[in-house]
Amino acid sequence: QVRLVESGGGLVQTGGSLRLSCEASGRIFSLDAMGWYRQAPGKQRELVASVTDRGLKNYADSVKGRFTISRDSLNILYLQMNSLKVDDTAVYFCKGDSGFLHYWGQGIQVTVSS
Length: 114
Fold this sequence. Notes:
Distance between the termini: 40 Å
Number of helices: 0
Structural class: mainly beta
Strand content: over 45%
Number of strands: 11
Radius of gyration: 13 Å
Helix content: under 10%
């Protein structure tokens, strides 16, 4: 079992920055890929960025050049978000994959005001 806890969300103005963190506990050695997803009101949850255990990174087109995903050691995942836009407002979720098992954090609100 893996537990994921997000932190670092909040309210920021357009053009500002935030850094999200996701701390994993439990069977963290079993995690291969980890990623950030987000869900805005009335919309489906979407991938923001992901990183494999080999360091391969993938970003949604909407955040390329503005967001950076990184993984520090086995159990902490970060998302550095710069040049934030109103459209980035959503609940952000951390996800960890272990083979066919998927673990989710509880989500954290990011609100970008104009």
